[in-house]
Amino acid sequence: MLLSLSPKVIDRIISFLSDDPPSLRHCALTCRALRPASQRALFHDIHIVSASGMDSFIQHVESHMQEVLDLVRGLTIVEDRTHPFGYLMPSQIVLRLARLESLTFVNLASNTSLHIPAFLTTLSGFTSVTKLSLFACKFDSFRDFSDLASALPHLSSLFVENVEWQGSPLRSTENRCNLPPVPSRGPHLNTLVLSIDSDPRYFDAIVTWLLETPSAKSIARLRVQSFNFSIEGEELLILGRLLHSLGGSLTHLEMPFFDSSETILTFSDNVNLTSLYVNAGDIWFGGSAWLSVAGVMPGVASCIQSLEAEYSIEYPVNMQEEAKRHAGRAAVDIALNGENFRNLKRVDLRVSVFIRPYETDLEREEIRDALLQALRRGFTRLHSRGILFVR
Prior knowledge:
By secondary structure, this protein is an alpha/beta fold. The chain is built from 15 helices and 14 strands. Among the domains are: 1-43; 251-391, no CATH class. The strands form 2 sheets. It has a 12-stranded parallel beta sheet. The chain has a two-stranded parallel ribbon with strand order 5-7. Helix 7 (117-124) links the parallel strand 3 (102-106) and strand 4 (131-135). This is F-box domain-containing protein.
């Protein structure tokens, strides 16, 4: 019966088992029609969380046929800092995982892995890997971080979340006043995602380093998230240097905006910027930050076609604060309908509604609908153009 089903239907069936490896194995072993889809789901992403898991993975690599190993697209290593094993990855894995695209390290500590010379040599053999993700990694020095990020020869996407290194977060030898020249060493990135919660100076060091690499001219998609730009505006200055260096290569930007953005940031060099994602935060209380966004975009805003923002509403509504929000929404509505945004085709507002818990489900739904309707009415110009989408 299953033999008569199309591959798309079988793929859809197997997709419901993506988080159930035992069932996937059973499907692969019991039905010939289900085997290809089951194997793709089973081997697409490999997660290793222990030394025994690394040993088992090595044995599988050595024993499986190459056509099965060619299904592996992602490899995630969650390091155990008390019993590290990441550095145990042998070089023969590189030869067998010829189609690996994504490499992720979680809790990696350089004093246990990067001090093993063969580790970076092994990573440099992954010529098919284009995406590197580093989560909660702690390095002995900034050099260890940059060596790891530079080890993959064809890296195009770098995701960094809460990485740290010993000593000062800053690189004291850097000249922070002038843009450094761009040499040929280092990654040539297309996508960069930075999320730093512990100390924004880590952001400073990473961006300053990237300005010395080919990435300073190649990044097309940039996301800065969960970040506190509060230390005397220095981090905004560093970000401004990166935006200036990227110039026309930047097409998509995600970042929080603050009142100080107007005097520090400029997008005049980013002539091909077409989409913008705004982490709204508290800017809706006044609207001045939105006006800052519009104010720094002459010359490039006409290229922007889509804008997305997050917005939070709390119920019961404080009428005094609501008056500020209303003024802010009106200012935003005017700014986004100016000449600078004439090519704007879509504005998405992702709304989170916080309602007191003792309301019934029906009351909560009615309250949410009423608040969203009021929000739409606050953006009369965008709503009349048919480009406002609230969800």
